């Protein structure tokens, strides 16, 4: 595990730490070859410089965010924001369905919107093939 992400997880309260560790483990396992780092103070995984998935501590939960998640057509994700992102929130590590998470991660590698160039395109997202 990336040492910055490990330090992030270690800084979380005990119940959230378990969630962060499980998410990082599953993401690393199923999103092979992805770069991962702390980005905007949260763990994020990238493919070819494009943000794919990340998680962050909220007041009452840990939010797992897929930047292109609204395009996955998979149950369990809720729309987030005005672009293509979708999320799920966890309050206990037992809520993480690893089979469903694996399917989302598989979709995240295949279905991507170009967030890397969103500023250059003045807020316009384009689908990557």
Keywords:
six-stranded antiparallel β-sheet; 8 strands; alpha+beta; Aspartate Aminotransferase, domain 1; 129 residues; 29% helix; two-stranded antiparallel ribbon
Can you describe what's shown?
- The model has no long low-confidence stretch (mean pLDDT 91).
- The chain has one domain: Aspartate Aminotransferase, domain 1, CATH 3.90.1150.
- 29% of the residues are buried.
- It is globular and about 40 Å long.
- Helix 1 packs antiparallel against helix 2.
- It is of the alpha+beta class and 129 residues long.
- InterPro entries: YdhG-like.
- This is DUF1801 domain-containing protein.
- Pfam families: DUF1801.
